[in-house]
Design goal:
With 307 residues, the chain is of the alpha/beta class. It is built from eight helices and twelve strands. It starts with a helix and ends in a 21-residue tail after the last helix.
Length: 307
């Protein structure tokens, strides 16, 4: 019982409000932009905005898999090379100086995405392209791009279906590759992508219901295209106020974009998730767990000579 008691006290100390129920030992993020071409600039801004937030809250690059289907920062149409902005005032360059893209351009495929999740990779795959999770891992999966009822397009040339995605997550569960997953998707008819899920411990959120489009937020005249989607814009606005020791819960985040802001209806699925979102700290998915190693071996240092 001692290890459980010590772990509970640790959680109470860090969060100052939540009782430790998660029992996860590490956090990972899989962030995917599936769209190419300049007019889809906003999808790159979407994924880099979430990337910036999880890094700020402590998830290291070694535990973030970033998949970006096109390089907007170096696109010849970009009037400000090496930058990606998510707001027309251009105050925040989400590309930054230390973005580590793990899959870029034509590496962003359905096959690579599914292999990443399931761990079915060639033996020579570099560490940066592997999702090295275990049964103690909480994983944030964020997808953005163009989709429809039951599918998400990759590169405008192929698609992953909701059933394929559900089966990949089930493989992850069977192989003990996660403890809990927060699935977050910003695309048209987004909720259709989580309807087929059947694996436990998954909390899902979508920018739109079936039959609805997800809308862009605003245009930057200097760039000439929409630069962020409405749902991700309000999610980022919310996350900017989150600190590592925040008392904000996942229930607060699930209401991040009401219909008057998003225009579309945000979808939420909680039936597969075993905890009350009101009692789950948002940092259980968007922040980093500091590893704590308990030992019951004692060393007598009373007679140890000083060096």
């Amino acid at each position: 019982m001692k290890p459980c008691l010590l772990l509970t006290l640790t959680c109470l100390h860090f969060s100052n409000v939540f009782v430790c129920q998660a029992n996860h030992s590490n956090n990972w993020a899989v962030l995917v932009d599936t769209s190419r071409f300049w007019f889809n600039y906003r999808h790159v801004a979407n994924v880099l905005s979430i990337y910036r937030s999880v890094k700020r809250l402590g998830i290291p690059d070694s535990q973030i898999i970033l998949m970006v289907a096109d390089d907007m920062a170096c696109n010849p149409r970009n009037p400000s090379p090496a930058t990606v902005y998510n707001n027309a005032d251009q105050q925040l360059n989400v590309y930054g100086d230390d973005v580590e893209v793990d899959f870029r351009g034509y590496e962003v495929t359905v096959e690579n995405f599914v292999r990443l999740l399931t761990g079915r990779l060639p033996p020579d795959t570099p560490r940066s392209k592997q999702l090295l999770t275990d049964e103690g891992s909480n994983i944030l999966i964020y997808l953005t791009g163009h989709g429809g009822d039951g599918f998400l397009k990759f590169q405008d040339s192929e698609e992953v279906t909701s059933q394929e995605l559900a089966d990949a997550l089930e493989q992850m569960w069977q192989k003990r590759r996660y403890h809990e997953i927060f699935f977050m998707i910003d695309t048209c008819q987004a909720s259709s992508m989580y309807e087929k899920f059947y694996s436990p411990n998954i909390l899902a959120m979508a920018s739109s219901l079936v039959g609805e489009d997800s809308l862009s937020h605003h245009v930057d005249p200097a760039i000439g295209v929409y630069i962020i989607d409405r749902y991700t814009f309000y999610a980022l606005k919310f996350l900017e106020n989150v600190k590592l020791k925040s008392r904000i819960s996942m229930k607060n985040f699930l209401g991040v974009c009401p219909k008057q802001d998003c225009i579309s209806t945000v979808g939420v699925r909680t039936d597969l998730f075993h905890r009350d979102p009101a009692k789950v700290p948002i940092t259980d998915f968007f922040g980093s767990v500091r590893p704590v190693e308990l030992t019951f071996n004692f060393l007598d240092i009373s007679n140890t000579p000083l060096q």
